[in-house]
Amino acid sequence: MLDLFTNPGFLAAAGALISVPIIIHLINRMRFKRLRWAAMEFLLKSQKRNRRRLIIEQLLLLLLRCALVALAGILVLRFVGFSFGMFNKQDTLHVVLLDDTLSMNDRWKQGGGFKSSLDFAKADIIMDKIVRNVGQSTTNERLMILPLSKLALEPIFQPEVYQRLNDKKTVEKIREYLDKLPPGKLHVNMLVAVKKAQQILDENSENRVAFHLVSDYRERDWRGSEAEALHKAILQLLQQKERVKLWMKDVAHPERLPGTGGIPTAHDNIGIVDLRASTRVAGKGMPVTFTITVANFSAREANVNVKVYDNNSGNEKQEVAQEFNPPLPLKIRPDETTTATFDVRFYPNVKADEKYFAQISARLESAQGGDVENDGLPDDNVRYAAVEIRNKVPILVIDGKGREGRAENGDSYFLEKAMLSVPGGSYEVIYADELGGGDEFKTLERIDLSQYPAIVLANVRELGAKQLANLENYVREGGGLAFFLGPQVSADYYNKNLYRGGKGLFPVPLADTYTPPAGEEPRQPAYTGYMQVLLRGEQFRNNDAFPIFGQVFKDKEQLAFLKDLPVRRYFAVPRAQWHPEPGRVFELATLANDQPVTAFQREAVRIMQALPLNREEADFKIFKPALQRYRRQIEQIVQPGSSEKAFKLAGALDALLTDRGDEKENPNMTLLWSMADPKIRSLRDDIKSLRDLVLYGDPLVVAGLYGKGKVVAVMTTAGKTWNDWGGGSDASLVYQPFIWETVNYLSSQDSDSNPTVGTKVRIDVDASRFKGNESLKMARTFSMPVKDNPAKVILDSEQFGTLDRGMRSFVFDRTVEPGFYQANLIDSNDDRKVPLASYGQVFTVDPVREGTLQRVSQEEMDRSILRLAPAGTVVFEGPQTSGEQLINRQTDLSESPWFFLIFLAILVAEQALAVHLSFHLKGSEAEMPSQVKPLAA
Could you tell me if 556 and 702 lie in one domain? Predict the structure, then answer.
């Protein structure tokens, strides 16, 4: 009932005032002691004759006076929703969708300091434009504020609903809430807010709803294929045009001017988009290579310096400045990125069974020192990284032949020799059979696999169900796993349980048995001067991005060693059954195709006959002699009875495509194949396809991604059982570097290994490995960086997690600050609180999505939303408007001119009736004597 009034607080006072005329009337009706008096008796008799008429007139006068007081109260109470006497409720719910993502921290200089888009949104838009003007409305307006970060972190977030917006206490309450709202560090899709808006609209079906979408309207969020779902959701929201209106307020600086098109000016920005270590786990004193990538989101070149800090101590690592490659300062072209590397060594006091998480941060400065100039977003100028430091780095080896594999020339023998020979390394080879008391496979069920940065399986036939489940979980959570195959491997088991149609750990399907099979003579690849193993670096943008082999063969001259790498047996991959997922599975090295070249004779002859030897155009005549020469050469290679191998044909075909000629008689063949003639293009593609077919044989080394981890599969043995890679060939000189880089790759961090703030993280622990697993608890701490001092360790959260089929799961889903977090598994009943296991993780901001401050154009908003929305439902504007259009001055009964006419009529009637009931002498009547004189005697 109270919500019918704009000012319900005056209702009690109005009720009391209405009772005043009644009280006065009752007082006047009080009876006094009666004295009999002749003249009065006469008057009383006369009054009795007119009693009914007088009572009616007095009651009517009382009613008129009560009505006057009631109407005066209505003027103060203000009936909401009455229009000309017809009840029509017109409440409006104002919903502020506040963008508090990272880009809203975009700042500019103002008044001797800095002001951000979020500051401007809270003070100038929400408080001064929305709250102040809505508070002047004559209707019952309500307001709620929905920060995007709250919606992302709390899916069931229920905002407070503010009422009586004209009350100073309510206004101060809203201001206090906004002041306590911290600057956002998350990236949140605006679609989350629009979906919440639709839910609010559905839940308030009796009210009008005004949505205020306060944001900086960056082009990345509002344009392109990713924004189409957002546009569709907004247009769907506006379909209830009778009840909804959307105010889209752009708060970015410089202000978006009304009536102007084009793209508004945006601030420049430079940020660190990646900082990662070459390994997750390193030994004490081992050099750890860090890779930093800096992006220039601006239209002008930038020069920046990078300082590296040890967050554990708070000190700057000044020696690192000399380690940068390329040297500092870094030069970054407009809209491009620059990558640099630097090495850091860590020397903590770590016991044999302890973990130490080394934390560093990289911070951008101007080339001259100090803050980066012309930089709108300072939050992406700092990025964190962490490395787990051990006294020795343990690598778990599971050899299918157990101790026998450690004999000379065995798989484990070569693996251990290679890993212990790493220059400056600190690796320790752990054999699973020694941990498991002779049963290496049971070890996979009992130990905590997460303590090993890499695991190697060599010549393993198959695994038990729980062993496989543990390995899958280990890799899925970021572990590295290498397979070396051998004669004991069951191809059927690998295909059914490890490959699983491309969904399992193993990246490729295997042929039914190895090649050549048992009982047949092994391959005897002779030295021919051609590569016996071909590297597949063409899939990657540069040599540094080429896993394993890019680092092994930085010196291109060392590729010559691959001309002598005899592989006698291996497991072939049936390519017809293999459909590798792009971006997830990579063929790194392939055996040369040693099939007889005659197997490709028909296709080679067909292509040679299609060469444009009969074209008479001048553009073709210059190539005729060279084409004839290549045709004769290729037909000779594939002639019947030829003993050549297929890879020799590949060399001739490649020369046909890439021969750049000379200044004399030989033309540049690349000019021919670059012609736009459709027949030439089709012929070029046929030659390329045949070249690849005859060049590449079966895969030898394949890498795959599985969850957060990596897998490498080598189709032959780690020892000399099937090849001479480990010893006895020229390629043995690169065997040890191959093992080093394989382990390094498996334990390395990808660019997406550090999640962004707001990302849900789950840690699964096999509770059966710990006694009293019901008391297991995960305590997570946050290392808050402190300038020139060690990081301050703050307890972030504690939880007992959930237990399901022996696995206890801990979920952390409200991470809002970038930096290093350490989760320690402890027994809550143990007063010492010694960690049973520790997990470190770095969370970062997302400059890739938030660092581009380019703004969406007016034309794009017109095209995608404004022109398609129902008329009058949406307004897109900058901050210049006063906001007075938000004042809802509804004409109700208290403002109607009829109300005042009725009030005037009642007032006149009341006065007339009051005069009528009063006692007055007419002008012709004599005054009554003031006293009665006695008669003369």
Answer: yes
pLDDT of residue 780: 95
Q: Is 915 inside any structural domain?
A: no
Phi, psi of 831 (to 5 degrees): -65, -25
Token pair recorded at residue 809: 């799961």
DSSP-derived pairing of the beta strands 92-98 and 208-215:
parallel
SS3 of residue 276 by DSSP? strand
- Alpha-carbon distance 255 to 274, whole Å? 31
The residue whose two tokens read 């002699």 is: 625
363: nearest Cα among 270, 279, 296, 280: 270
Q: Which tokens hold the place of 118?
A: 């979020």
Residue 172: its pLDDT value, please? Answer: 96
Q: By C-alpha distance, which of 470, 573, 557, 558 is closest to 513?
A: 573
Measured CA to CA, the distance from residue 656 to residue 166 in angstroms comes to 83
The domain in which residue 170 lies consists of 92-256+857-886
Taking the C-alpha atoms of residue 921 and residue 34, their distance in angstroms, rounded to an integer, is 25
- The answer for residues whose C-beta is within 8 angstroms of residue 903's C-beta and 6 or more apart is 68, 71
Asked if residue 680 and residue 712 are part of one domain, the reply reads: no
One-letter amino acid for residue 828 of the chain: S
The reply to whether 135 and 157 lie within a common domain is yes
CB-based contact 836:770 (threshold 8 Å): yes
- At residue 409, the 3 state secondary structure works out as coil
**Residue 932, in any domain of the structure:** no
Q: Is 511 exposed, middle or buried (0-12, 13-18, 19+ CB in 10 A)?
A: middle
Q: How confident is the model at residue 837 (pLDDT cuts 50, 70, 90)?
A: confident
Q: Is 541 exposed, middle or buried (0-12, 13-18, 19+ CB in 10 A)?
A: exposed
Specify the CATH number for the domain of residue 145: 3.40.50.410
Residue 689 predicted with pLDDT over 50:
yes
User: Do residues 150 and 187 touch, judged by C-beta distance below 8 A?
Assistant: no
Query: Could you give the dihedral angle defined by the CA atoms of residues 736, 742, 748 and 751, in that order, rounded to the nearest 10 degrees?
Result: 130
What digits encode the pLDDT tens for the residues 81-114?
A: 444 333 344 578 999 999 999 999 999 998 888 9
Per-residue CA distances from 766 to 366, 505, 777 (Å): 48, 20, 13
Are 72 and 137 in the same domain? no
Q: pTM for this structure?
A: 0.78
Is 208 in a helix, a strand, or coil? strand
Q: DSSP assignment, residue 678? A: H
| Prior bond of 394 cis (ω within 30°) | no
Say whether both 829 and 712 belong to one domain.
no
Please tell me the predicted confidence (pLDDT) of residue 327.
94
Q: How many CB atoms lie within 10 A of CB 877?
A: 13
Query: What would the mean pLDDT of 494-516 be, rounded to a whole number?
Result: 95
Question: Under the phi-then-psi rule, with left for phi > 0, alpha for psi from -120 to 50, and beta for the rest, what region is 415?
Answer: alpha
Residue 78 has pLDDT above 70, yes or no: no
Mean pLDDT, residues 213-234 taken together:
94
Q: Are strands 356-366 and 393-399 parallel, antiparallel or unpaired?
A: unpaired
Q: Give domain status of residue 909, yes or no.
A: no
Strand 270-277, strand 288-296: pairing: antiparallel
Give 30: exposed, middle or buried? Use CB within 10 Å, 0-12, 13-18, 19+. Answer: exposed
Distance CA 800, CA 778 (A): 6
C-alpha span between 488 and 401 (Å, rounded): 9
Q: Does residue 349 sit in the same domain as residue 397? A: no
713 and 640 assigned to the same domain: no
CB-based burial label for 426 (10 Å; 0-12, 13-18, 19+): middle
Q: Where on the phi/psi map is residue 46: left (φ > 0), alpha (ψ -120 to 50), or beta? A: alpha
Residues 660 and 734 in one domain: no
Q: Picking from 67-71, 288-292, 443-447, 758-762, which range would have the lowest pLDDT averaged per residue? A: 67-71
Q: Say if residue 326 is preceded by a cis peptide, omega within 30 of 0.
A: yes
How many structural domains compose the chain? 6
- Distance CA(817)–CA(782), nearest Å, equals 9
